[in-house]
Amino acid sequence: MKELEIYIDGASKGNPGPSGIGVVICRDGQTIKNIASFIGNTTNNIAEYTALIYGLQEGLILKVERIKINTDSQLLYRQLKRIYKIKNPNILGLYNQVQHLISAFNEVSINHISREENRGADKLANQAVKQAAKKK
Predict the structure, then answer these.
(1) 112: domain CATH number?
(2) Residue 31: closest CA among 108, 130, 121
(3) 136 pLDDT higher than 70
């Protein structure tokens, strides 16, 4: 397995508030794994970065060489493309972790997609928040 396509999303109810991540991992157009995880109380941007980190880590576990990341977060996309500067120290730490993980792959592309194209990851992220709320 040489290449994966990953769809990522973060959800925060309150921003900051209860947050979850959703990651859909695809190979050759087929979904091979879904990840939905509650990550505690945080901001939407931190949830987006956390979803990306989970996706990149999954790529390492699966020993892929190329990874295509799809996000509907314009902020995350523009920060990763260095269009926007990162001022928040918490985000900067996550950004540095992402850069470290990216260096393990031969090729990484990051694409900004519409919310409609990212429904799977969005559903997983919101599902993680809802399931955590039920457990209280």
Answers:
(1) 3.30.420.10
(2) 121
(3) no
Q: Which tens digit of pLDDT belongs to each residue from 117-132?
A: 999 999 999 999 998 8
Helices 89-102, 44-61: axis angle to 10 degrees equals 20
Q: What is the tens place of the pLDDT at every residue in 30-83?
A: 999 999 999 999 999 999 999 999 999 999 999 999 999 999 999 999 999 999
Q: Can the peptide bond before residue 16 be classed as cis, meaning omega within 30 degrees of 0?
A: yes
Domain count, the chain: 1
Assign 135 a pLDDT band (cuts: 50, 70, 90).
confident
As beta bridge partners, residue 84 has: none
- Range of the structural domain that residue 101 is part of: 3-135
> Given CA atoms 8, 11, 17, 19 in this order, what sign does their dihedral have?
negative
